[in-house]
């Protein structure tokens, strides 16, 4: 537990970088070494990646673990009861930025490895661990590390812990994530602000043009109208439909958080089918024109919308971007252009993959309850580097509490869940060793 407190005290914030990032990477490498793994800190074009491995080189099964040591910024957030980077224990909770996202979760895996090395007679399988420092702003340089070390990273299964458990701290297995495409939509208007009385009606207003584009692209129910933008959107299988219909939905909690009822119901759609199986276009902010006190009857020179999309199934971010750009041209919108800022493709592992039962048994052993199987996380992680770049199945098992408040003030990790996650991870290693003993060794 002390190691988690020590790691929280290092304010390794993704977007600011600096010496704290390097301190954190070295601290993580030291923890890996204390867990009995051989570790190194490898530079990338961005923040360094910590890589560690251990266990028999001739093992029939290799488990790849992942985590991120960077934390979401805590500056400019009101409501912290305690200093964000000074951990505080209250009952079953450890409060502090990064307690649950993600330091407490990857430490649970490393503690399980350490238990096997010290008390279990050594690791019975090969274990590899990746800890990166850029997850909170898109894991931009993780693919660089993956491509450079592809052969060294060969494994049978990736299993990692991120995000919260379901309501009531119910354990879950997540078999994928939605992708992301982040853009700026720019609208150019006149070369200088113009009097709306002299030029209104004969000069295009960039705010109106941007608004027309957004209204024409996105239907009231969230469906997107650009031709080709839905290429790769998956059809939900009957097995997946049965799974999502059984997922718990706390309407009282939803209303308390959002102030209203779920939108899909108004359009005759299922909540989780809409959330997990359809792309979503979000406008996080719009700027342009004059919004100060008083009035200025001017036609503005420009407008801009910050936009992020969540992608599903086999959607390719670059193809989606191309569809939007073609839609702008075909629809004749004036002065509109798109600037891509970031993208990650969606990722999926089949819910009936043979390793799913093995992971489920380990989680039930650790938490005392059979986990719920969720086809996809609604958010985004760099899951695709495992499924698409390395070509291995990937299953996420959150260890943090449902109310961990990640990215918000008073983030926390429950000590009891931390210990249960450690037990689940230790059990997974045992079960994978048994499973591997029944299979022939992989060719070298």
UniProtKB/TrEMBL annotation:
One Pfam family hit: Peptidase_M20
InterPro entries for this protein: Cyt/Met_Dipeptidase, Peptidase_M20, Peptidase_M20_dimer
Ranges where the Peptidase M20 dimerisation domain occurs: 176-331
Protein name in UniProt: M20/M25/M40 family metallo-hydrolase
Gene3D superfamilies: 3.30.70.360, Zn peptidases
Lineage: Bacteria, Bacillati, Actinomycetota, Actinomycetes, Streptosporangiales
Keywords assigned by UniProt, alphabetized: Hydrolase, Metal-binding, Protease
């Amino acid at each position: 537990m002390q190691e988690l407190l020590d790691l929280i005290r290092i304010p390794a914030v993704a977007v600011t970088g600096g010496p704290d990032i390097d301190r954190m990477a070295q601290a993580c490498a030291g923890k890996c070494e204390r867990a009995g793994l051989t570790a190194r800190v490898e530079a990338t074009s961005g923040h360094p990646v910590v890589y560690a491995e251990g266990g028999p080189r001739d093992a029939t099964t290799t488990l790849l673990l992942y985590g991120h040591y960077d934390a979401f910024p805590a500056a400019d957030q009101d409501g912290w009861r305690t200093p964000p980077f000074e951990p505080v224990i209250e009952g079953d909770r450890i409060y502090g930025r990064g307690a649950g996202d993600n330091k407490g979760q990857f430490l649970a895996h490393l503690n399980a490895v350490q238990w096997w090395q010290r008390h279990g007679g050594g690791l019975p399988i090969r274990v590899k661990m990746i800890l990166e420092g850029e997850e909170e702003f898109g894991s931009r340089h993780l693919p660089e590390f993956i491509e450079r070390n592809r052969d060294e990273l060969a494994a049978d299964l990736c299993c990692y812990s991120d995000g919260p458990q379901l309501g009531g701290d119910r354990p879950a297995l997540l078999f994928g994530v939605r992708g992301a495409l982040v853009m700026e939509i720019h609208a150019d208007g006149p070369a200088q602000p113009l009097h709306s009385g002299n030029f209104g009606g004969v000069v295009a207003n960039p705010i109106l043009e941007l608004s027309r584009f957004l209204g024409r692209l996105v239907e009231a129910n969230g469906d997107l109208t650009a031709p080709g933008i839905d290429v790769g959107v998956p059809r939900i299988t009957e097995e997946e439909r049965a799974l999502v219909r059984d997922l718990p939905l706390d309407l009282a909690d939803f209303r308390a958080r959002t102030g209203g009822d779920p939108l899909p119901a108004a359009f005759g759609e299922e909540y989780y089918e809409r959330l997990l199986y359809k792309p979503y276009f979000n406008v996080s902010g719009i700027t342009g024109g004059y919004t100060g006190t008083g009035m200025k009857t001017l036609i503005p020179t420009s407008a801009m919308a910050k936009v992020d999309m969540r992608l599903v199934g086999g959607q390719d971010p670059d193809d989606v971007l191309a569809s939007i750009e073609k839609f702008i041209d075909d629809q004749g919108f004036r002065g509109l252009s798109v600037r891509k800022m970031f993208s990650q493709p969606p990722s999926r592992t089949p819910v009936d993959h043979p390793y799913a039962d093995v992971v489920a048994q380990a989680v039930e052993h650790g938490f005392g309850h059979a986990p719920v199987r969720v086809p996809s996380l609604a958010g985004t992680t760099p899951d695709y580097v495992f499924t698409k770049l390395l070509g291995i199945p990937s299953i996420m098992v959150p260890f943090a509490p449902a109310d961990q408040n990640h990215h918000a003030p008073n983030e926390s990790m429950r000590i009891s869940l931390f210990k249960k996650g450690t037990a689940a991870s230790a059990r997974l290693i045992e079960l994978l060793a048994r499973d591997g003993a029944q299979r022939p060794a992989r060719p070298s």
